[in-house]
Amino acid sequence: KCTMNFEKNDIPLATNDSSIEKTDKTDKIDHFNYSIRYVRCLLRILCIWQLVVAEPTRLEKHLSTLFLPFVSILMITLVLPLYCHFIFRPVSHFEMILLLGPLTFQTGNIIMHFILLIRSKTLKLCVQHMEHDWLKFDDPTELNIMKKHVRYSHVLTLVCISFMYASAISYFLIWPLLSGDALDDKNEAAKPKTIPGTEDYFNAQANLLYKIVFCINFISALFHYTVTTAVCNLAIVLVSHACGLIQIIIWNLENFIQQITDKNSSPDETNMRIRIIIEKHVELLNSSRLQRKL
């Protein structure tokens, strides 16, 4: 009877320990998912997230395969008329200076979009390494340090998102709607154009065509600004994660020095703390090495 009672009492304890471990792991994964939520959202808009996530859903695969060429074509349609207008038509020096800004900006966005596609495997490794780091944070102080850096990264990301999308909506949506018609070179009423060049191929001032071009330009601009925001957000998230790891190493070193100063630790504990600090330093170097490949 004593043996039976011992076994019955022992089994629930093991079950409770495993459930606690599962809960703790789930909480860490939730913290990790929260830290990259803006990365996930922006890359989903660009149809790149399914190339980054470890196990994409079937719906994400199909949507990405369907809409990824659509996103690329839309981004090119915004800059192609601008190039044609810049190359094949006589442009004054003042107009050249005005067109140089959007031309380089949009070309850079297209290049960055293709770089994200090409480097998606490296980005996937970075995301997996971040998840691995979050799963290894056992100390509450280490978790608090990382949460603090996540909050900083989210604030910077929200500022970037607000600035980029506000400028896109202001220029490509609000300004054309509020400015009204103006007189062109032929002394005719002309609707405002956010991007020149479309009138070289068809009558973009026609009511229906103007609305179609207006909508296409606006949607294309949103994708362009999403690329810029996604790249900035990736930089913010990766740098804040690395800064959090550095802060954790500093905190462990300070604790280690304090223990040596107080002489409260045994040689085995000292060796264990040194090993932990070295392992965290190696993890930081591996994470930085992956980030440099992006």
UniProtKB/TrEMBL annotation:
GO terms for cellular component: plasma membrane. Its main location: membrane. The chain crosses the membrane at residues 66-88, 94-118, 155-178, 208-227, 234-253. It is a multi-pass membrane protein. One of its GO terms (molecular function) is olfactory receptor activity. Coiled coil: none annotated. Keywords: Cell membrane, Membrane, Olfaction, Receptor, Sensory transduction, Transducer, Transmembrane, Transmembrane helix. It is found in: Cell membrane. GO terms for biological process: signal transduction. PANTHER family: ODORANT RECEPTOR, ODORANT RECEPTOR 19A-RELATED. This is Odorant receptor. It comes from Campoletis chlorideae.
